[in-house]
Design brief:
The chain is α+β, with helices and mostly antiparallel strands. It has helices spanning 2-24, 41-49, 59-63, 146-155, 157-177, 214-228, 292-306; strands at residues 28-37, 68-72, 81-85, 92-100, 104-111, 120-129, 132-143, 190-194, 197-208, 239-246, 251-260, 271-275, 278-286, 314-316, 330-336. 29% of the residues lie in helices and 35% in strands. A hairpin with an 8-residue loop joins strand 5 and strand 6.
Length: 338
């Protein structure tokens, strides 16, 4: 009888201790970790905004290298989604629900084992810090049922996730800082006023910047020149427009164009348009054409700090590069602003 008595007392003590643990255990699952990264926001953004890139630095991908991920939606945009299945980490989904370009991403997380109504939110925040950024990673979970709080406390779940966040940020830092440095010197920007610019063009939808080369331009300019009756009919230097450029994926709607005196009729394969008159920011870039993507990212970041962009940015090819040192060839990068 004493044995039974002591066993019951022992079980009662365990129950009481567990209830105490539930009382002092976490009511919500909240994590916030930050790390300084010696890189610009646009360099970090491409790793955060595309879930596929997480495979290189996310701690959970390292725990289960056989994890199967299915990606959907446009990287860096609301609706971009990762659905995963894993024998080690369980199944779930993560979806971007809010975006403040180059500054903040908010996503929702659903874990299959937690039930359909249990939604956790995570944010990734980039703040300028000296020559680099402070990257912050947060988690804000739904309220934990009382009887599970003791288990969370005893298992050290909060501490475990905090350590995962720290290792993930450290891996992200290592990857980003190993990238070739972007333009470090301050960009020289001039505020100008532009008139209406009518143009004819050739447009490619969602083309990756790696597919844009001199052959593409040569072919487009030949077709456009023939259409307007000769290159001498241009009213200025040729240019190209990067509509809807996505720094996370390097994709854009590219329009290679020639300026003309007035609006022209539409023809098969030919676009017509007008750059609207108004204020603009101009930066004169000297160098190879295939390096302008880096300059554009830095320029748009700087312009966005003080201005509202009103139309797509475009490049004006004011110098003929034939036989010249590309370091001496000028290209105007122009961003129309309000």
């Amino acid at each position: 009888m004493k044995f039974v008595k002591y066993t019951l007392f022992g079980l009662l003590a365990i129950v009481i201790l567990y209830i105490v643990a539930c009382t002092i255990g976490p009511k919500k699952f909240e994590v916030k970790k930050s790390l300084s990264i010696n890189a610009s926001a646009d360099m970090i953004w491409s790793e955060l905004a595309n879930f596929k890139n997480w495979e290189a630095w996310s701690p959970w991908h390292q725990y289960d290298t056989s994890m199967v991920n299915t990606y959907a939606g446009e990287a860096g945009a609301v609706g971009h989604k990762n659905a995963w299945t894993s024998t080690e980490m369980g199944n779930g989904t993560q979806e971007i629900i809010e975006v403040d370009n180059l500054r903040r991403i908010k996503s929702s997380l659903k874990f299959a084992d937690w039930g359909e109504d249990a939604i956790t939110y995570s944010e990734y925040i980039l703040e300028p810090e000296g020559e680099g950024c402070k990257a912050t990673w947060t988690m804000d979970g739904s309220e934990i049922p009382f009887m599970f709080r003791g288990l969370m406390l005893l298992m050290g779940a909060q501490k475990s996730v905090e350590q995962d966040y720290e290792s993930g940020l450290a891996a992200l830092k290592k990857i980003v800082e190993a990238k070739p440095k972007k333009i470090s010197k301050e960009l020289v920007m001039e505020e100008i006023t532009i008139d209406d610019i009518h143009y004819v063009g050739k447009r490619w939808s969602r083309i990756h910047e790696s597919k844009v080369d001199s052959a593409l331009f040569e072919s487009a300019y030949k077709e456009l020149g023939d259409y307007i009756g000769g290159m001498d009919k241009m009213t200025g230097a040729p240019f190209s427009i990067g509509h809807h450029y996505d720094p996370a994926t390097g994709e854009m709607d590219l329009e290679i164009a020639l300026p003309v005196a007035a609006e022209m009729r539409v023809a098969p394969g030919i676009t017509v348009g007008k750059i609207p008159a108004g204020k603009a920011i101009k930066h004169v870039y000297y160098g190879a054409y295939d390096q302008t993507a880096e300059v554009w990212q830095s320029l748009m970041l700087q312009v966005g700090k003080n201005h509202m962009v009103r139309w797509s940015g475009y490049e004006v090819y004011v110098d003929d590069p034939t036989g010249k040192d590309m370091s001496q060839v000028a290209t105007w990068l122009i961003v129309p602003i309000n």
